[in-house]
Hints:
Layout: E1 3-10, H1 18-32, E2 36-42, E3 49-52, E4 58-62, H2 73-83, E5 87-91, H3 95-99, H4 101-109, E6 113-116, H5 121-124, H6 128-135, H7 140-145, H8 147-163, E7 166-169, H9 172-182, E8 187-188, E9 207-211, H10 220-229, E10 234-238, H11 244-253, E11 260-263, H12 268-277, E12 280-283, H13 292-299, E13 304-306, H14 314-317, E14 321-323, H15 328-340, H16 342-360, H17 362-377, H18 382-392
Parallel strand pairs: 1-2, 1-5, 2-4, 5-6, 6-7, 7-8, 9-10, 9-12, 10-11, 12-13, 13-14
Antiparallel strand pairs: 3-4
Helix pairs in contact: 1-17, 6-8, 13-16, 17-18
Amino acid sequence: MPKLCIAGHRHWSEHPGGVELQTRYLGEALRSAGWEVVYLCHSLQGRTGWQQLADGSLLYWLPPYPFGMSVPRRYLLRVLEEIGADVLYQRGPSVLQESGVVLEWSARRQVPYIFAVSSDWSLQRRFPTVGQFLRFRQPRWRSWLLLPYALWADWRLHRTLREASYIFVQHEQQRDWLLRRYRRMGVLVRTLHPELRRPVQKSSVPLVVWMHNYRPHAQLSEALALAQLCPNAEFTFVTGRTRPQQLAELRSRGILPKNVRLLGAVSLAAAEELLEQAWVLLHTGRYEGFPNTFVQAWLRQTPVLSLWVDPGGVLGRQQLGMCAQGDRAKLLQALQRLLQDSALREELGQRCRAYAERMHGLERHCAILAALFDGIAQRWDAEQLQCLVEEQW
């Protein structure tokens, strides 16, 4: 039985974010295909040591380390030796990825190491962490203080992208960026979510949902401004765990519009129920990879209107909503039209669901994931793996 180690930053049971959700679905898919799965994660609640999960996979809790350079190298190498994985997987920049220990162990033991890209900026920008710190990190004084760390983190990310055995990308444009910047072939593995398997139930009143763990680059204020201009629709904002910066931004606006309902962290089931009820999913973030919320919304026949993000150009190409390319007037016009035109919403919703089930349905693609990782365990090259994906996806 081959063994996969998912060396994540956090575990979905403590932090149900997009990265953690995708590692969960990957682990469950491979576990059902006969793989042994071990998660290696920081605990936000101070847990340490081994834990067996309900599906039979194992979880090794690590203490929370604040920076990549603070990860104890020898200790982590011993843990990796104890796990003895046949394949290693990391998704997106994280403290464990920055430490370089997992990559080092894979090279030492000649075990395939996969790095899955989770943000366009990781490939678009030469210094993505520096850019994030300077443009979006709050408070500003702390951003400047941590600038040397941001430079070091970007150097570590570039090293990972150069030395990983395989790079997984989320859409075609990421694959092009990877080839152009690093001369490497990426394997396109799409964001996956479970299919709904029943008719959807939409809200009887116009409902717009905005869903993003609060970050300054999510541009919550842009969405609140749109809510003021659409007083006949209800707007529900799901912002995740409350942060001081979020409260400061809300206080600066004074009284919220009467049609706005502001939620903090909600369960996965509650989030997906909101996306099902919604008439439109609104996205105002400045950058992403392939947002989980897009796929979750499409599977529930909810079109997406985005101010900036259009992963691989799929919104326009497949007609699953619209990306305004930063044009706020265009976004407002599209939102007002969708709220008023039920026939258009129905047409887009049906197209969204059909596309998402075909390209992003988890059950539909479990066998492909298993075949892909079997090929990695057998040391297939990236071109062979990409051919496998293109033939079967």
